[in-house]
Specification:
The structure is a homodimer. The first copy, chain A, is mainly α and about 450 residues long. Chain A contains 18 helices and 3 strands. The two termini of chain A are about 35 Å apart. The complex binds potassium ion (2 copies).
């Protein structure tokens, strides 16, 4: 036992994260292939089985099989378990790495979750995971209660309402994006209550765990002189701006296209829901293959940006995007530093955002070229959509993923894995050293990627 | 006269450049519409006339009309004049701004072209333009001589060979990319001599004027202790690497596609030629609509990168790309500075490359979305190709530009203009101030964008 712990301690954070995901995927493949998980007579090829496991562990939601037609109730329960495993793992690892690497900046959060700076890191990780599970289960318990009772309106039996309510809650909160309706949330296109609950759950999952514990600390009133961290402010404001810009853009792009003939409130809800979902949720209330090419490009870009760091979402992350924009504005104005919320962004974070963006663009570009070779019959717009959806661990799909070649499926799996692990940004998080610079405001660190 | 000069002196460099291009476009529209410039019975709509002028002044080469079917010999001579005007203007302004803004780094070049640092800037500009015209005309004179005599093999009369030889030379050297054959250089698909001459001319135009004068100084042996500047080294090495990578990639992507059935040397030359041409030349020896979607994406990316600064090419420029890559490699290795050729890249140049890349990506993305709305029938891959071709002032085309809606044509014109002016990067060049940082190697400035 001691030797095993020593081995774990010897791993670099990057190695630990990659190892965690490999083990999690292996366990998920087993869980999803236990006797009785499949419906009678349904055979799932091994590659599709692995695909579902990778998609579930990375809480992406892209699928090559129809869940409701493939898995039994037992199988669906296993899938929920894997989503929980994925969601908790993602939040824990993301936050833990941040605390570990970000040294000084993590102080506040470390205090908020009673994690001693000098304490053994494995013990700290355990504390962190317990806190995350507590918060996640609390959110999910409330969500599942509401949806289950509300779903009695749709389903004849309580057990059916329960299954659908709990699954929708877990799928939304972990941003898993899977569905057991066979058509995502399209059956609830006119049910704004369901949509609002689901959107709240998606946002709570995607806003980032550090934000959740800060809000909890703020509400609890137990910490005198509490103030929100720069990270919490930037990621929340960026998240909000992306939601608004996304909703308006989708509305404008589609109002004379697929939204034509819809009632005004239907069009508005469809815009808002898919804007929320494009951050990382991946659920849809509408057949998004009806979207115009312009909307596809726009949503692809939104999925590429992704959700907050230390959340269940992927992509380059909101803070990376925010710093790029802040940098651009400040640079154009001739300023040699970025000031926001009375703080100055650290130079190393500008560097990180640059590195993450460049590498992410390369990845999308090379993936696109490879997929045009392996899957030449699929339109390029759809390929880019699925690629950014995988990298952003969003899971929205133009429906072409099930038709991908084996090579294409493996590539999408790899992108979900990379989008999840944030390997790239992580490498830079480890690799980068702070540069000494003079500063005017006190500096404060922000997570990139 | 004095008052006019005062007015000019009051312009910021950005205003001066934009003004120059507006005036140049207006003059070009007039030149291309002089009586007798069109073939009998041919009517060119005003928007197409402006399009041709913008394309020629920006030496891009995208066309909405077939030059050989539209213009008379007199019109073609006018077009050559406009291309020269464009090419000289582009080189002069780019280099001049660099000398003006880059203060210390321009010293060497300023000495090489006998431009005094304290001398009046208009006088310096005149010296610079004279030097550029001398070098450009020398290159073109040699090129035209070779091609004209060689073309006697193809054309019956000397005057025909002369017209085609001179036009091809000017189109290649200024990287104008226009043709009077009606099908670019496709007639010379099997003539490697013509292709080699044209490639050399394209490269001489696209490698950047500062490189040309340094090479001239080096060869003249007149300057003791001469060494090539960091800028010349970076831009030339990057240019070379892009040529090699481009050739190999095009060969691999097309060898089982459009190159199938070609002789090995045909495939190799087609790969090399279009790799060279994608930097900024825009001429083709092959019907590139036959390229696979993967190649289209790859070539789009190459055109987006573009040519050297202070050359006749556009795009984000080779140095911007080089610094992004060098930054990425150094950052991943945990280094907080970029060392190359025993010099350290200045922080401000890293910032500039970041700003240029982010803004360029935004521009391409927004342009793509707008074109999918204005021209919904054109495949998105083709739209992105024409957009990057315009921004890179490359001029390669999948043939959809003539079919664009008026809005689409205006947008492409705007992109050619922006790609040419480098307005964005220029704004940052003016806007950005150097940050004070410690350095280990002596620092030296490099042009971004
Ligand atoms: K998802
Ligand atoms: K060109």
């Amino acid at each position: 036992m001691a030797r095993w712990q020593d081995k774990v301690k010897e791993l670099t954070p990057a190695q630990a994260i990659v190892s965690y995901y490999f083990i999690a995927i292996a366990i998920s493949v087993i869980l999803l292939n236990l006797p009785g998980t499949h419906q009678k007579g349904v055979e799932v090829p091994f590659i599709d089985s692995v695909f579902t496991a990778v998609s579930a562990v990375s809480v992406t939601g892209l699928t090559v099989v129809n869940i409701s037609e493939t898995y039994s109730v037992f199988g669906i329960v296993m899938l929920m378990l894997v989503l929980q495993l994925g969601g908790i793992g993602v939040m824990s690892l993301g936050t833990f790495v941040w605390l570990l690497v970000g040294k000084k900046i993590g102080m506040r959060e470390r205090q908020l979750i009673q994690m001693d700076h000098n304490q053994h890191s494995l013990a700290g990780l355990v504390n962190l995971i317990i806190e995350i599970i507590r918060i996640l289960l609390l959110i999910e318990f409330i969500g599942a209660m509401i949806l289950t009772f509300y779903f009695l309106k749709y389903y004849d039996s309580f057990s059916e309402a329960l299954l659908n309510g709990v699954f929708a809650t877990i799928s939304a909160t972990t941003n898993g994006g899977f569905d057991i309706t066979g058509e995502s949330l399209v059956p609830y296109f006119n049910d704004y209550f369901v949509q609002i609950i689901v959107m709240v759950l998606i946002i709570l999952g995607a806003i980032g765990f550090p934000v959740l514990i800060e809000v909890k600390a703020f509400l609890s009133n137990k910490h005198p002189n509490f103030r929100f961290s720069l990270f919490a402010k930037i990621t929340t404001v960026t998240f909000g701006i992306l939601l608004v810009v996304g909703s308006v853009a989708i509305y404008l792009l589609e109002s004379f296209h697929s939204f034509k003939g819809m009632k005004w409130h239907e069009a508005i809800f469809a815009s808002i829901f898919h804007s929320v979902s494009s951050r990382s949720g991946g659920l849809t209330t509408f057949d998004i293959t009806q979207f115009s090419e312009g909307t596809n490009v726009f949503v692809s870009a939104m999925m590429f940006i992704g959700a907050s760091p230390s959340s269940v979402g992927g992509g380059i992350r909101t803070t990376t995007f925010a710093i790029a924009i802040l940098f651009l504005i400040n640079f154009a104005r001739g300023k040699d530093n970025i000031q926001v919320f009375n703080r100055e962004i650290h130079l190393i974070d500008v560097f990180r955002s640059y590195a993450v963006i460049i590498l992410a663009i390369f990845m999308v570009l090379i993936s696109t070229i490879l997929l045009t070779i392996s899957d030449p019959t699929i339109p390029i717009g759809s390929l880019v959509f699925e690629i950014t959806s995988a990298f952003g661990t969003c899971g929205m799909s133009l429906g072409v993923t099930p038709n991908l070649s084996p090579f294409g499926k493996v590539l999408i799996m790899l992108l979900m894995f990379i989008g999840r692990v944030g390997l790239i940004s992580f490498i830079f998080t480890i690799g980068g050293r702070a540069e000494k610079t003079k500063y005017h405001f006190p500096k404060e660190r922000v997570i990139i990627g």
